[in-house]
Fold this sequence. Notes:
By secondary structure, the chain is an alpha/beta fold. It is 43% helix and 14% strand. β8, α12 and β9 (435-439) form a beta-alpha-beta unit.
Amino acid sequence: MAWPFPFGASVLGLVPGQPVGWLQLLALALLAGQLDGAKNWRRGAWLGGLFAVAMQCATYWWLFISLHVYGGLAAPLTVLAIVLLAAFLGLYYAAASALFVAFAPVQTAWRALFFAAMWLLAELARVKFFTGFPWGEGGYAHVDGWARPLAAWVGVHGLTFMAASVAAWLAFSLLAPRTRWRSALAGVLASAAIAWLPVFNVGDVEPDPALIRPMSVTLLQGNIPQDEKFVSGTGVATALRWYGEQLQNATGALVVAPETALPLLPQQLPDGYWQALQARFASGDQAALIGLPLGDFNTGYSNSVLGFKPVPAGQPVPLEPLALYRYDKHHLVPFGEVIPPGFHWFIRLMSIPLGDFNRGAVGQPSFAWQGQRLAPNICYEDLFGEELAARFVDGRQAPTIFVNISNIGWFGNTVAIDQHLQISRMRALEFGRPMIRSTNTGATVIINRRGEVTHALPRHTRGALSGDVQGRSGITPYAWWAGRFGLWPLWALGLAALGLALVSRRRG
Length: 508
């Protein structure tokens, strides 16, 4: 779906790794046109299902690297697993396409809106059911341009609906008889109007007067090879040495180390390592957020972030990790961090460590430091904006900065890095908050509240990124309604469109 452009070299001015919104619109318009000519709902289901399978295989083909190269699953089984996953998720789109063919209104504008509503329901199903895997949703293709002001109002799912509406309107109008040229002209004018929307600065938030001073941050990127990351003699030793040195010598007011930067449980660290970390940040004017696993065999394990900061005068330095700030990942990756019931046999075919984690709560408190409220999220948790929005119900406790820590090293030097970057940029637009990202292999960046990357490290290099980030306050419209109602307003929109179509057909 053209987010981002997947090839390694520029073609016709298209830049590798950058979203291409017009290609996404073109793809949806072609599908809508095919569905409009389908003779029955069965034909529509096949067209929609095949489109979805192709779309998703092209989007997350890089799962082959994690499952085969690093997981050890046989190549034929890996290809089969990816295609079956795409086919299973494609059932949502097949159903949506069948419903469109069966119940679409006759009038062009209503027909386009009905197509968009059915497409939205399919995307929402992919977000919600079976833990959710919304990677590759069409709205991300529009993170630049007209999406910039609208994301703060409707979020990525709303952008998906709007893009589908425009694509279908153009498709149906251009396929209409010449006597309906007014409809085609209206579709073109509506698309042009949306393209000009970035000139309006809507849904913006301002810096809190108490947070005028930017915070200096140092973001670490260890670039530990994934096939060595959990090997004691190589990756583990390198990670402990390099991150230990960087955490001791970093100069930013906040230092961030990525997901499982320390690939051992605290009780497994070398003697004195943990105490040295705590002593480093127990005084002074610096704090740290560090990704590492926590837990034990009896209580279970979690993918977590621990926060270190100076201890107030008169208080003892805590010796246990549970006494520090702690964030536990809530939205776990199926088969990587949580094993669905009945699928333990599949995990046994691979060699991925720590495959079943405990789940943290939604809306965990932020890490308070220098007047900022820093909200960690781990890996692909930033795909789920409605879960991040739960932290914005109380405006007084709302985060001022998002902190994403990730390890995309599982997927090699592929478009997965670019895709995740666009996802983080969209969250910045939706909430009007900067997002800082510390990753193992990229993209380690600072994103401002307008979704613009202001500082970046080259991917697959080892280094530390230093820069300033400006915390923001205020609540965008999207943060307000998504925090209170989640995805229910969008579900209601799609279901209402389906209901109206059914009623109109019965009356006809």
